[in-house]
Amino acid sequence: MSSDQDPVFKALADRSRRMLLDRLRAENGQTLGALCDNLAMSRQAVSKHLKLLEAANLVVTRWQGREKLHFLNPVPIHEIASRWIAPFEQHRVKALADLKQQLEGGRHG
Amino acid sequence: MAESKFVYVTYIRTTPEKLWQALTDPAFIRKYWFGTTQECTWEKGASWKMIYDDGRVTDAGEVLEIDPPRKLVLKWRNEFRPELKAEGYSQMTYELEASGDAGDLVKLTVVHEIDQPDSKLIHAVNGGWPRILSNLKTLLETGTVLSTKK
C-alpha cells in the first residue's frame, strides 16, 4: 500500500474529485454537508468521491464532537512529486531558467 | 472561518516501536527534519525544544501527553518569528497505529492545531510537514539510516 501509488493517480484522475480537494485546500476540515454546498452534484455522489479520496489517503476524516470533518492530506501528492518529478525537474528547471535569463536579459539588458 | 488545524496521515512500512524511536531520537530526527533536532526527556510535563545544530531554538513547548509507542501530544510555540510567537501555543499530536493486512504498516497521523482562526503558525508549519513525513517514510523504509548509534 505504501509504495502503491495507483489509488492516488486514480483518485486524482477525476475533475470532481480534484475540485473537492481544491475546496478543502481553500477551507480545510469541512463536513460532508458543507462540501456539498453550491455543488451541482448529489450528496451521494460527493460522498462516493470522498470515500475514494479517503481510500487513496488524499482525504482524512476526524470526528469533532458529532461532526465528521474532512481534511486534505497532501502527503501522497508529495510522494508522487518526489518519485516522478524531483528526479527530472532539476535539469529542466535549470535549462528553462537559463533560457529565460538569456532571453529576458537580452531584452532588458 | 478557516479551521486552524490540519491532519496529515502517512503509512510507513515499519513497526510502531521503530517509528516512535524515529520520532523521538535526536540523532534520527536530524536526518529528516531540515537540519533541526529536538531536545526533550519525553516525559509528561517535560520541556520540549526544536533546535538547530548551532543551538538556536526554533520552536519550544512541553509534553502534554505521552504514551509510547502510541501517542504524543506537544504544546508548541514558534520562538523565532515574532508574528508567529504572538499567536501563542499550538498543539501537535502524533498517533501511531498498526495497520495493513499483514500488520506490517504503521499509520502515522499528525494533527497540528491552534485555538484561533486563520493562524499564521498553522499556515507556516503546514507546508513543511509533507516533506518531513515523506523524508521520514523513506528513511524508515529504505532502512539505510536505521542505525542511529553512530
SSE blueprint and pairings:
The complex is a heterodimer of chains A (109) and B (150).
Chain A lengths: L5 H7 L2 H12 L5 H5 L6 H13 L3 E6 L2 E6 L2 H34 L1
Antiparallel strand pairs in A: 1-2
Chain B lengths: L4 E8 L3 H9 L1 H7 L3 E4 L7 E6 L4 E11 L3 E8 L3 H4 L4 E10 L5 E9 L6 H23 L8
Antiparallel strand pairs in B: 1-7, 2-3, 3-4, 4-5, 5-6, 6-7
Q: Identify low-pLDDT runs of chain B.
A: 145-150
Largest sheet features of chain B: 7 strands, antiparallel
Q: Looking at CATH, which topology of chain B would you report?
A: Alpha-D-Glucose-1,6-Bisphosphate, Chain A, domain 4
Radius of gyration of chain B: 15 Å
Number of DSSP helices of chain B? 4
Outline of the structure:
The complex is a heterodimer of chains A (109) and B (150). With 109 residues, chain A is mainly alpha-helical. Helix content of chain A is 65%, strand content 11%.
Describe this structure in words.
The complex is a heterodimer of chains A (109) and B (150). Chain A has 109 residues and is mainly alpha-helical. Chain A has two domains: 1-73, Arc Repressor Mutant, subunit A (Orthogonal Bundle), CATH 1.10.10; 75-109. Helix content of chain A is 65%, strand content 11%. Chain A has helices at 6-12, 15-26, 32-36, 43-55, 75-108, and strands spanning 59-64, 67-72. In chain A, strands 1-2 form a two-stranded antiparallel ribbon. In chain A, strand 1 and strand 2 (67-72) form a beta hairpin. In chain A, helix 1 packs antiparallel against helix 4. Chain A is elongated. Chain B is of the alpha+beta class. Chain B has a single domain (5-142), classed as START domain (Alpha-D-Glucose-1,6-Bisphosphate, Chain A, domain 4), CATH 3.30.530. Helix content of chain B is 29%, strand content 37%. Chain B contains four helices and seven strands. Chain B has helices at residues 16-24, 26-32, 82-85, 120-142, and strands spanning 5-12, 36-39, 47-52, 57-67, 71-78, 90-99, 105-113. Chain B has a seven-stranded antiparallel β-sheet with strand order 1-7-6-5-4-3-2. In chain B, a hairpin with a 5-residue loop joins strand 6 and strand 7 (105-113). Chain B starts with a strand and ends in an 8-residue tail after the last helix. The chains are: A mainly alpha (109), B alpha+beta (150). Chains A and B meet through strand 2 and helix 5 of A and strand 1, strand 7 and helix 4 of B.
